[in-house]
């Protein structure tokens, strides 16, 4: 974008021409308009991102569903037939959850399958022809509690015997012979039983063969038994002859009243639903008696003959062991459960144990789980229900479809609940097919997840079904076929979810509350699936979730970016402005996306899957966008040649490109702010971090054009003021339109810089210095032009300024306004913050150089403009200076008979008439400057009159002048004139005040003041000598001490150093004179001196002097010790080396509050005094005393001091 010098001149000339044609507000205003447009766009993005919209999002109008393979018509009819068969042979008692009407179920099935009546009847007849299923009872004996203790150790050894008996009938138990009787072989709970008692209907013990064998072996190994005389083992007898399907038993649990079995049993119900499930609990004592009794089961002919042997088994068990007495099985209780009363949902409850008669005393409870199922006699293994599982999934899908078709609202609002009829059919199908809970959860998940691929169900529903699947899962509870089926469903569902995430911006728009909730649910489902044991069991080789989602986010972001590029850059252009404009539009789209990602997507991803969506997405966009904008700004102004004939077209195009570039810059600047949300490791590698590098040349061009525009605007504005002249009302009566226009230029530059917010600190300082220098030149140009306009009206050639009052005021006001605008410009440009930030990249010394350059540029320009204002205003003061001095002269020379007010009033009247009219047309700052100039004239004239040596005035005259000066201060500092006191009390004013004080002071007091001045001069001797280029006269070292009791002042002259050479040999012969001054305070004290030390500039004296003084004399105000160092000369008069002074009242030993040092003279610290020369500083006191020729004290004092000065 860097133009050649020839192009630069053409470009500037063309832009200047455009300014003339289009008006002076065409360039910076256009940039500000672009900035405002950018701000509106930014606020719109933020506002749209904050919209909380509950409308249905785009997700459910997007077709990305998987096409699933359906079932054939034949399979469809077979499934319907199976459904009718299930309804016809439903089992279990009806609960409130399920429907009991067979016809209602038929009607629902027909409606769900969508079959005609004739098809329904045909298939129903076919179902009726099928052989009825075999009813199966599945029982789980879980545990028992609080059983009765039968053994001596306070426990029992309980076990259960359970079985199925037909419908209850009354029967008689035959009496046993061979030593047995009706009572001897019964346990206590059987006594009193008779053939007519209802307790005779209790069932006997039944035992499952396999479990019984295991129990027999374990008991044989764990108890001491005498089987040595038995020829055949009980185990082998029962193995061959006991019918296992009639009776089954649990293991024996030793020494417990709360046994836990957790054993499952399965019974086939062959004679219908009128049978009863019966269970007894016994305390085991002699297993052999049980075997012998149980062998009689071989005589049972069929299931119905089992009843009459029940009590015989029990009695036989007692009789067999009656001779020993200790081997008796004790009855602990029983439970009866009618098959017809078992609900279809099964039973899971605690049963209280019952006795055999009303007199039986049993206690305790047993926990039983029981449920019914069926088995069809189709020649397949009983445990194989794979066909039932597949049918269950298909049936679920049909019912889901039917319920969705009936649902009138949004399909995504469907809760997933099926009708009562549907749930009844599915429930019956599950229990008749012996489908387990995990299989049912699997079928439900597969059906709903596959249906979701077709009709998009609620993610909340899918999450609930997923959680149910997780809750019912048990390790290795699925067959290989079931696992494969679930694996396929998992894969289909996840692929569908991943496709949704790929289009996250379209399917889950961030400004839609509902869609964000669904996204959260979707991610929760995915995360839950990947965290489930069943998922890893079925999909052991699935990629890590974070890897999958990272790949999906990247692919989705790239696809979205490419689509946005295609949509925005449609083939309808191709000018450079269009290219830039489209790139800006793309960036704004990315900003909106970044805003949504930060505010909505990223928190969800971080919370659920522990990943940063924004970090992955923004990095991908950054790379793609970097490639996209690489060619946009970098070459648009390069190599653009313009013919002279087409120079205006070239300028217009270049200006439009500049505006388009600025818009692109602002959009990229806004986008770059979002890099803060990328983690620090990746942030430094983002291309967006260096976005400003594309615009370096453009910024230089913008600032260059802005400078030229402002200079041109200044010329036009001032010219316009000249043309309009007095016919146009000045802005606010104190400014012209040109100052307002130029001041706005400066504001626009500041606004442009703030809008630019250039991110590179180092180059920002360079730009800032350039702006400051350009605006300083613009300020000088404006001041020169408006002053030139005033000069053109021959302002400086006239003595009558009344005609120019308003124009002069406008001129200085305009200049001051522009000066103020320029002076505050660096502050508005935030130069201080920029320089502070630069300290991180530059040494402080370099930054200070930058600061100094900026502040110096501002200060020099401001001072130059201020001097111009003073120069213009000084014409007003010069015009009235003579009359001003005359009025002041009348005050000074007024006779004492004239009152002070009468003497000063003419001056104040003159000021109000000739000066204060400017107050109405000058701004306050300029009116203050005018008053400063007037004050300066008054002070200069007053000082001149006071310093006139030839004039001798009375003390009262000086008193009047002092009063007049105070009245001047009050007048100029009043609320009407508002000249600050710090401007009034200048150095000349302070000098006048001091001189007036001196003139009104008596001679003795003046002499005291003189010595006080000499003390101050001595303290500043080093500074004075350096500033006045006088040589250092050396140092005097001494000690001084006052002895109160002796009333003696002791002074010790120790030495001098670095004296000036007075002799031709380069040395001196110094000595020191010591005198107490002023003389009129110590008339009785004579001057003393040391001995002479030859040929040295550093003499050592070590001489002590005594002065008799009272305490009162020591504390006299103004008393000093005057040390005079002289060079002794035999041939000529002695030469003056220097003098020093020591205030007496501050000497050690003199009693006063600030002095408590009472040490001896030898122990006191030596005092260093700088030697001075009386000519070093002009003494106003000497000059005033010199005028008092009639005062002998003054005349004598002045004579001695003049002599000293002349040495």
Automatic annotation (TrEMBL):
GO cellular component terms given for this protein: late endosome; secretory vesicle
Domain MHD2: 901-1010
Major localisation: cytoplasm
Domain C2: 117-317, 1027-1157
Protein name: BAI1-associated protein 3
Family matches, as CDD domains: C2A_Munc13-like, C2B_Munc13-like
Keywords recorded for this protein, A-Z: Cytoplasm, Endosome, Exocytosis
Family: Belongs to the unc-13 family.
Gene Ontology biological process terms, A to Z: exocytosis
Region listing for Disordered, in residue ranges: 175-200
Domain MHD1 stretches: 662-786
Source organism: Adineta steineri
Pfam family, one: C2
SUPFAM superfamilies in the cross-refs: C2 domain (Calcium/lipid-binding domain, CaLB) (SSF49562)
Comp. bias (Gly residues): 177-186
SMART domains in the cross-refs: C2
């Amino acid at each position: 974008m860097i133009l050649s010098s020839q192009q630069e001149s053409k470009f500037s000339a063309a832009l200047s021409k455009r300014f003339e044609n289009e008006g002076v507000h065409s360039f910076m205003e256009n940039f500000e308009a672009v900035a405002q447009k950018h701000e509106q766009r930014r606020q719109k993005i933020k506002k749209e991102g904050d919209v909380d919209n509950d409308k249905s999002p785009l997700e459910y109008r997007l077709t990305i569903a998987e096409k699933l393979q359906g079932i054939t018509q034949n399979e469809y009819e077979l499934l319907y037939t199976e459904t009718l068969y299930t309804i016809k042979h439903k089992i279990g008692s009806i609960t409130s959850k399920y429907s009991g009407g067979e016809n209602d179920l038929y009607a629902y099935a027909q409606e769900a399958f969508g079959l005609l009546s004739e098809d329904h009847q045909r298939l129903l007849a076919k179902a009726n022809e099928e052989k009825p299923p075999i009813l199966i009872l599945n029982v789980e004996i879980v545990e028992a509690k609080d059983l009765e203790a039968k053994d001596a150790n306070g426990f029992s050894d309980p076990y259960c015997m359970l079985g199925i008996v037909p419908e209850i009938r009354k029967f008689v138990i035959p009496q046993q012979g061979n030593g047995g009787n009706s009572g001897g072989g019964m346990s206590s709970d059987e006594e009193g039983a008779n053939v007519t008692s209802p307790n005779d209907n209790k069932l006997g013990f039944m035992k499952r063969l396999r479990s019984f064998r295991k129990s027999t072996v374990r008991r044989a190994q764990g108890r001491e038994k005498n089987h040595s005389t038995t020829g055949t083992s009980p185990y082998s007898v029962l193995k061959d002859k006991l019918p296992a399907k009639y009776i089954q038993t649990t293991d024996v649990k030793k020494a417990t009243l709360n046994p836990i079995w957790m054993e499952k049993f399965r019974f086939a119900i062959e004679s219908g639903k009128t049978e009863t499930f019966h269970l007894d609990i016994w305390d085991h004592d002699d297993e052999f008696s049980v075997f012998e009794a149980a062998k009689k089961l071989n005589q049972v002919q069929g299931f119905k003959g089992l009843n009459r042997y029940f009590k015989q088994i029990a009695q036989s068990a007692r009789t067999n062991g009656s001779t020993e007495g200790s081997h008796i099985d004790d009855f602990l209780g029983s439970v009866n459960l009618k098959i017809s009363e078992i609900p279809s949902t099964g039973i899971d409850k605690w049963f209280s144990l019952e006795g055999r008669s009303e007199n039986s005393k049993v206690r305790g409870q047993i926990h039983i789980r029981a449920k019914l199922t069926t088995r069809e006699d189709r020649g397949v293994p009983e445990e194989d229900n794979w066909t039932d599982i597949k049918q269950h999934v298909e049936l679920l899908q049909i019912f889901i479809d039917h319920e969705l078709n009936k649902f009138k609202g949004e399909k995504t609002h469907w809760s997933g609940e099926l009708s009562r009829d549907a749930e009844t059919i599915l429930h019956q199908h599950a229990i008749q097919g012996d489908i387990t809970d995990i299989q049912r959860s699997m079928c439900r998940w597969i059906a709903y997840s596959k249906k979701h691929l077709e009709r998009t169900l609620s993610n909340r529903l899918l999450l609930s079904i997923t959680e149910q699947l997780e809750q019912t899962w048990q390790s290795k509870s699925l067959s290989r076929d079931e696992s494969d089926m679930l694996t396929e469903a998992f894969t289909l569902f996840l692929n569908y979810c991943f496709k949704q995430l790929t289009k996250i911006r379209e399917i889950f728009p961030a400004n839609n509350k509902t869609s964000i909730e669904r996204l959260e649910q979707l991610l929760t489902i995915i995360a839950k699936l990947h965290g489930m044991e069943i998922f890893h069991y079925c999909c052991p080789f699935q990629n890590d979730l974070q890897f999958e989602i990272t790949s999906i986010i990247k692919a989705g972001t790239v696809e979205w970016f490419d689509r946005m590029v295609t949509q925005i850059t449609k083939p309808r252009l191709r000018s450079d402005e269009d290219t830039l404009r489209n790139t800006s539009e793309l960036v704004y789209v990315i900003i909106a996306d970044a805003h949504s990602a930060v505010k909505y997507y990223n928190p969800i991803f971080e919370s659920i899957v522990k990943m940063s969506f924004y970090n992955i997405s923004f990095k991908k966009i950054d790379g793609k966008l970097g490639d996209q904008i690489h060619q946009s700004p970098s070459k648009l102004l390069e190599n653009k040649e313009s013919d002279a004939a087409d120079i205006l077209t070239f300028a217009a195009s270049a200006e439009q490109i500049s505006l388009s570039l600025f818009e692109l810059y602002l959009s990229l600047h806004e986008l770059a702010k979002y890099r803060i949300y990328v983690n620090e490791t990746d942030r430094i590698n983002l291309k967006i971090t260096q976005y400003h590098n594309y615009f370096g040349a453009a910024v230089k061009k913008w600032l260059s054009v802005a400078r030229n525009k402002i200079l041109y605007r200044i010329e036009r504005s001032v010219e316009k003021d000249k043309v309009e002249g007095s016919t146009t009302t000045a802005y606010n009566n104190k400014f012209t339109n040109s100052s307002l226009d130029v001041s706005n230029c400066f504001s626009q530059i500041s606004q442009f810089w703030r809008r630019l917010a250039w991110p590179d600190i180092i180059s920002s300082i360079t730009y800032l210095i350039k702006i400051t220098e350009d605006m300083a030149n613009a300020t000088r140009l404006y001041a020169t032009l408006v002053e030139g306009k005033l000069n053109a009206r021959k302002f400086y050639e006239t003595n009558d300024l009344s005609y120019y009052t308003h124009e002069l005021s406008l001129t200085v006001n305009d200049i001051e306004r522009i000066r103020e605008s320029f002076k505050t410009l660096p502050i508005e440009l935030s130069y201080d913050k920029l320089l502070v930030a630069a300290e991180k990249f530059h040494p402080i010394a370099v930054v200070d150089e930058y600061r100094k350059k900026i502040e110096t540029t501002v200060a020099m320009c401001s001072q130059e403009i201020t001097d111009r204002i003073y120069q213009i205003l000084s014409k007003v003061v010069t015009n009235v200076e003579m009359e001003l001095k005359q009025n002041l002269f009348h005050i000074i020379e007024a006779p004492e008979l004239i009152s002070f007010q009468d003497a000063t009033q003419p001056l104040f009247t003159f000021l109000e008439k000739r000066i204060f009219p400017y107050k109405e047309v000058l701004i306050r700052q300029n009116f203050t400057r005018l008053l400063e100039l007037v004050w300066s004239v008054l002070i200069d004239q007053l000082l001149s009159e006071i310093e006139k040596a030839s004039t001798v005035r009375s003390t009262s005259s000086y008193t009047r002048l002092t009063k007049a000066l105070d009245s001047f201060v009050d007048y100029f500092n009043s609320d009407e004139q508002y000249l600050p006191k710090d401007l009034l009390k200048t150095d000349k004013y302070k000098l006048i005040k001091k001189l007036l004080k001196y003139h009104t002071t008596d001679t003795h007091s003046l002499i005291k003041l003189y010595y006080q001045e000499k003390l101050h001069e001595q303290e500043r001797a080093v500074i004075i000598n350096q500033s006045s280029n006088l040589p250092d006269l050396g140092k005097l070292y001494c000690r001084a001490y006052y002895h109160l009791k002796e009333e003696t002042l002791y002074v010790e002259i120790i030495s001098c150093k670095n004296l000036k050479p007075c002799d031709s040999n380069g040395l001196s012969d110094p000595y020191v004179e010591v005198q107490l001054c002023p003389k009129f305070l110590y008339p009785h004290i004579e001057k003393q001196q040391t001995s002479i030390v030859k040929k040295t500039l550093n003499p050592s004296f070590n001489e002590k002097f005594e002065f008799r003084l009272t305490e009162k004399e020591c504390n006299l105000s103004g008393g000093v010790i005057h040390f005079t160092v002289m060079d002794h000369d035999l041939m000529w008069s002695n030469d003056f080396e220097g003098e020093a002074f020591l205030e007496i009242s501050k000497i050690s030993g003199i009693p006063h509050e600030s002095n408590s040092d009472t040490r001896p003279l030898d122990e006191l610290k030596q005092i260093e005094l700088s030697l001075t020369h009386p000519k070093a500083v002009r003494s106003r006191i000497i000059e005033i005393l010199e005028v008092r020729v009639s005062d002998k004290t003054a005349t004598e004092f002045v004579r001695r001091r003049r002599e000293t000065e002349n040495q």
